[in-house]
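Entry 14. Ran structure prediction on the chain below.
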Amino acid sequence: MSQTTQNFKANWKKNLSNPKFKYLFLSSLIYFSIFPLKADSFFQWIQQRNGIQLNDFILNAIEPSNNSHLIFGIIYVSVIYLLISLIKRPKDFIVFAWAFNIETTFRFLCIYFIPLNPPFNLVDLHDPLAEIFIYGENLAITKDLFFSGHTATMIFVCYFLVKPWEKIGAYLLTALLIALLLIQHIHYSIDILGAFFFTALSIGISKKLITYEE
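Output, structure tokens:
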């Protein structure tokens, strides 16, 4: 067994022996598991209600095109890389897990209370994993708008990666992703801006929540 593997196991064993860490870890997994159970019916409901159509001057200036493969390539590769990095850092992993849960809760609430119709000239974005685990396969979901979960995901990647070159790469990919989302007219520009606020707020709350002696 390599020294890296030994250190990895010892680090997790040490943290899991802490009752508060174990509680935070298990509760984050339980809380996370609720979303797939409720998401399908929720998103099918919001898809059928009428909302507000915004006049977005940024989108009005952009000719729409389909960039689905690039969008999901960026997100999936970035998330896998982030999880590989976080699994080596148990405390950061828990901070991320709870920040993600809090951000997802904010997103559900915002979508519920801020009904929006999709932008003009939206090009459908099909996420195979989201359709299986979150949205279901009944309707294409286009009204899960404020705020952008795609952008929020990349903000997490930017924040939780630690090496300078990793962060630079994450910043560039996030900028590219935002451009692609706007080009595809998947989100209003306000959805993108909202993601920065709510994701930062979620990280701040999680960091306050995750306090224990290592």
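The chain has one domain: 3-209. Will compare against last week's run tomorrow.
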